Predict the 3D structure of the following.
Amino acid sequence: MRKRPRYFPSSWAEAPIDRRGVLVGMAAVGGFLAVDAAAVVYARGPIGSGGRLTPQGFIDAFRQVHGSHPGFRRNHAKGVAVTGYFDANGNGVQLSRAAVFRSGRRTPILGRFSLPGGNPTVADTAAASRGLGLTFGYPGAEQWRTAMLNSPVFPDNSPQGFYDRLLASKPRADTGKPDPEAMARFLAAHPETARAMAVIKQQPASSGFGDSAYHGLNTFYFVNAAGERTPVRWSLAPLAAPRASPPPENGPNWLFDNLIQDLRFGPLRWRLLVTVAEPQDTLTDATVAWPPERRVVELGTVVIDSIERERRGNARDINFDPMVLPDGIAPSADPFLAARSAVYAASFRRRAGERGARPAVEVDAVSR
């Protein structure tokens, strides 16, 4: 088990929680994950049960497929920084002793909306998967980080499967699209991915970032004050009504442009939900959705109320490592969790030493 890193000075333990506090704290420690000894160990060790894959191997594969883009994330390179807060309703305290779920508590959030892939200049498309990374800031030694997608399941259930799919998705020079024969061979070898993609295609369409649902996908344990462990998956359900008609696809950044416009009219809100597993549910395969009749608990409301271009000191410098968890939330045995942590750390260490990258999306800051 990784030891949770301390990111904030101990003097913060008595400080009030507000957005300025968490922003100042994060800016003060700069590239804090680069000095997390546990993350460095993970970033150098093998990934998966076979021992053949390494974080560097994933970094090389992303460069092979998407090209070299110094200063950007190796995946989800295109994105914008946002801030906001989480208002807890108290329903979570029976499941988890994490302070973030206490009734009436407001916790500041730093986040990042993004699109997948390692090319920051890729044009927005309506079919593109959308990502949302969030850091829930604590006044003391802890944080809760999560990286979510607007997909009900994940396409892969092993690091090797993700690696193979990444290579199979490399665009051909003549078409700019993946080689259909390479993808067909991959899907034949990975029927779990074929099934997951069929589920993803069936989900209701959303028009942008603000009306998308987001899913944590992997299983975690909520641990309450009595030490009872409950397997859960979390998600965000949008409170924004779907657009009556699709937004215009004007320009290469139209999804982000529409997000900026949405925030000019007011904050965006999501209900934070956790789905509770039954004994027969898989806890280690994110390609398999749990049945819709499972118990769902609403924990409060996530509010995003400001947006800006990526820059030093905001979410650009945050590694949304899913293994950074507060007391009261613990990882499951899903092999993807350690693998994601390792690859994220390796990517962070690389881009932290690179210079010259301009933001992929220019934003006139919006703050409410």
Summary: The two ends are 40 Å apart (CA to CA). Helices lie at 19-29, 37-44, 55-66, 159-168, 180-189, 191-202, 254-265, 335-352. Residues 107 and 138 are 7 Å apart (CA to CA).
